[in-house]
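Hi F.,

I've been meaning to write this up properly since the lab meeting, where we talked about keeping a consistent format for the predictions we share between groups. The idea is simple: the sequence comes first, exactly as it goes in, then the structure tokens exactly as they come out, then a line or two of notes. No screenshots and no reformatting. I'm using this chain as the first example so we have something concrete to point to.
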Amino acid sequence: MADLTIATPFAGYELPYLDRWLEHLRDLCICADPAEVLWLDNSLSPMFGEYLLDASTTIPAPVRILEERLKIADPATAKADLPWEAKEVQASLMWQRARLEVETEWILCLESDVIPPPNTVELLGEALASSPPVGAISGTIPERPHRVPNAIVPMVWRMRIGEDTTIRGLPEPGLHVPAVDRYLGLNPDCPRDGMEIVDGIPFGCMLSRRSTLLSVPLEPTWPPCNVYGSDQLFSRNLRKLRKLHVAVHWGVRCGHIKKMPDGTFEDLRNVTHIPTD
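Output, unedited:
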């Protein structure tokens, strides 16, 4: 896909696994042939910035690096240890800038802890082109939920408009995304190798047109950022304001690098559970 940008924000905590992630990015670029790779560096670290600069020379596509200076927390604070609210604000601001900087028709939002298969853009692009009511489509990103021991589930969300509930302990009329429902709402009869329309998808490996990303707001409420992240907000607003759906592609099976409580990193590869209602 020639008119494509692959955009990735960096926070600075990715060094322990960055070489592995870059290997997969190189394979992705060989298959997708993007016009540009865009990196947003919010590490506030000269050393990390130099590492990215060196790494950019190994990518088989033009790489543009933009430095961010988001004052969400003390620069000495490790980004992986920031509270959820601060990380969500940081993420939404960086995606906000990314969509403004991109000059191509298509953008693949690829987060620095997601491992995409090489044919990601081909499969997501074909599925998106075949379904005009869908404005954005995500690969299947595995996650280990807190409330389902020993399960690996897909990152998708169910959002119920018009229902009062609490999210992260705070009330929000009209939106329903409590943790227990985060991975529910899937159609049990849907084949698990193609596209399925869902209520919400993450930005981790998401393909969309730049015009679609620009057409709805991304910023979560701040302060406090207590209801939803920028990805959930995007999915909801796309449906409410543009009458467009979001979808997950079960055939695009991504890896997901997760930091464990002991400081090590786990590479989640395969979804083991598909929860339903």
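Notes:
The chain has one domain: 4-268.
Residues 4-268 form a domain with the Spore Coat Polysaccharide Biosynthesis Protein SpsA; Chain A fold (CATH 3.90.550.10).

If this format works for you, I'll send the rest the same way.

G.
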